[in-house]
Design goal:
alpha+beta; Thrombin, subunit H; 6-stranded antiparallel beta barrel; 7 strands; about 15% helix; globular
Length: about 110
């Protein structure tokens, strides 16, 4: 009997479509003695999160605020996030506790890019 391949790719399992985004990102980490800032660059964004290349490694599960500006806009966005994937300096952050407006704005931006 021939084997069938019932596997799906990561893109097929994803809830949201990713689109390329190359902007500066500030990662704000709350610490006992204040806020630590780590700088990086985004690689992709979706309604649910962002891929970021950072200047240092962080453990999975790290909670942080990603601060960035969408191209063509003047105002910075601050998105509460959780580090869910890490490979070297490449990180995947899931946006957490977004407002309905934040989610709607991300959905609209991603739809225009895709």
């Amino acid at each position: 009997m021939p084997k069938t391949n019932n596997t799906t790719t990561g893109a097929e399992r994803r809830r949201w479509k990713r689109v390329p985004l190359d902007v500066r990102v500030k990662l704000l980490l709350a610490e006992a003695d204040g806020v630590r800032v780590i700088h990086g660059r985004s690689t992709v964004i979706s309604e649910g999160g962002m891929g970021v290349t950072l200047t240092r490694e962080l453990p999975k599960g790290t909670l942080a605020t990603l601060v960035f500006t969408i191209p063509g806009e003047k105002e910075e966005r601050s998105m509460p996030s959780r580090l869910t994937f890490r490979s070297g300096f490449g990180c995947g952050f899931e946006f957490v506790e977004l407002t309905a407006d934040q989610r709607r704005e991300l959905r609209a931006f991603c739809a225009l890019q895709g």
